[in-house]
Amino acid sequence: MEELKKRILKDGHALSETVLKVDSFLNHQVDPELMYEMGTYFKNYFKNHGVTKIFTIESSGIAPTVMTAMQMNLPMVTLKKQGSKILKGDVYQTTVHSFTKSMDYELTLSKKYITEKDNILIIDDFLANGEAALGAARLVEEAGAKVAGIGIVIEKSFQPGRNILDDKGYDVYSLARVGKLGENLIEFLE
Ligand code: 5GP
Question: Record-annotated residues binding xanthine (predicted)?
Fold first, then answer.
């Protein structure tokens, strides 16, 4: 997505060789028009995948995901990050390691919002080691539903997540693929 790559070059900052900060349009302040465009790209890619519902992970995936759900006319569910396990049986939970916070959380989905007939599109803001996307996929599969695909706003292709998801057979579509980060350096893959 050319508009996104331009925006990353204009407003993104590489905090290190592994972390990209995009607080001015995605992670803190949000540019709604750009989010809408992202939704159009995700819709165009996934429109024939038989998606029944779209899942995202709180909180930075919500803006692009709601724009996608609106354009695909589908319901959306936000997976919650809980600090500890809920012991009642009405949720699915799985432990995920946070790349940016270096800590574990319990990714949580109420059993009310998924059935085994669902075919779920998972959308997230970043793909690094693939932990968050894999956790979301585990919840979907634990419920007996299918993963229709995984949509990522910014993939850091030099980290292992993309290959792990590809190897597991998921259909991964990223709007921007970053090949290299460094001081004053952001390079994309074609
Ligand atoms: P993963 O689970 O693939 O290792 O990391 C993905 C999650 O970590 C995303 O949900 C995102 O919130 C966060 N994340 C990973 N890398 C970055 C990054 O470079 N910048 C920002 N802002 N968030 C990141």
Answer: 20, 27, 156
Residue type, 15: L
Determine the pLDDT at residue 158.
Answer: 97
pLDDT at 88: 81
**Is 130 marked as a binding-site residue?**
yes
Which atom from ligand 1 is nearest to the alpha carbon of 60?
A: 12
Residue pair 137/150 in contact (Cβ under 8 Å)? The answer is: yes
> Could you report the average pLDDT of every consecutive run of 10 residues in the chain (190 residues)?
98 95 97 98 98 97 98 98 88 95 95 98 98 98 98 98 98 98 93
Check: CB of residue 12 under 8 Å from CB of residue 25.
Answer: no
Planar angle of CA 35, 41, 43, nearest 5 degrees: 100
**CATH class of the domain whose range is 36-176:** alpha beta
If you measure from the C-alpha of residue 128 to the centroid of ligand 1, how many angstroms do you get, rounded to a whole number? Answer: 6
